[in-house]
Write a structure and sequence with these properties.
Layout (H helix, E strand, L loop, with lengths): L6 H23 L12 H38 L1 H19 L5 H21 L3 H18 L2 H4 L17
Helix pairs in contact: 1-5, 2-3, 2-4, 2-5, 3-4, 4-5
Length: about 170
């Protein structure tokens, strides 16, 4: 926590924000994304900017501390760092895949690879600060700036109500 908002954290923020336009640009080049304009304006824009900034920071801190902090250190003691990193990255992808509505295999793969990247940065730097900053900024850019379908859910509830489904008559 000593370096929580230090140089490595801000470097992670810049990498997280910088990688997003590259990713979205590649998706757009393949015809999978187009810009429709701003979804919100004025005071609502500033309100949700603050809300998503806080939420993204909380997600970055909590998921990195959980998966790349305690769990990785504990599992690595038993099976080695890279075996633990691979297992936890697969688990990280699976948790996002199975417990986030409307996720697809591409989401599982990219989330798992991002988890492995975070393990690499931890191994290289000895600190979670970069990974936390990267994670928070990457999520923020995807959920608030780009407005991906996974972020906005197109007005669908996060948990479907099984009682609301049509029944066979």
């Amino acid at each position: 926590m000593r370096d929580a908002f230090g140089r490595s954290f801000w470097m992670g923020i810049s990498w997280g924000l910088g990688s997003n336009p590259l990713l979205v640009g590649l998706i757009a080049a393949g015809g999978g994304y187009r810009i429709l304009g701003l979804a919100i304006h004025g005071a609502m824009l500033w309100y949700f900017l603050a809300l998503w900034t806080i939420a993204s920071l909380m997600i970055g801190f909590s998921e990195e501390i959980q998966f790349r902090g305690y769990l990785l250190a504990t599992l690595a003691d038993g099976v080695g760092f890279w075996a633990a990193a691979i297992l936890l990255s697969i688990g990280f992808g699976l948790i996002h895949y199975f417990f986030k509505p409307h996720e697809r295999w591409e989401d599982f793969a990219s989330t798992g690879l991002l988890g492995l990247f975070a393990c690499f940065t931890l191994r290289r730097s000895g600190s979670l600060a970069f990974a936390i900053g990267f994670h928070a900024a990457f999520d923020f850019a995807n959920l608030f700036v780009v407005g991906t379908e996974r972020g906005r859910m197109r007005g669908r509830p996060l948990v479907e109500n099984p009682m609301a489904r049509p029944t066979m008559a």
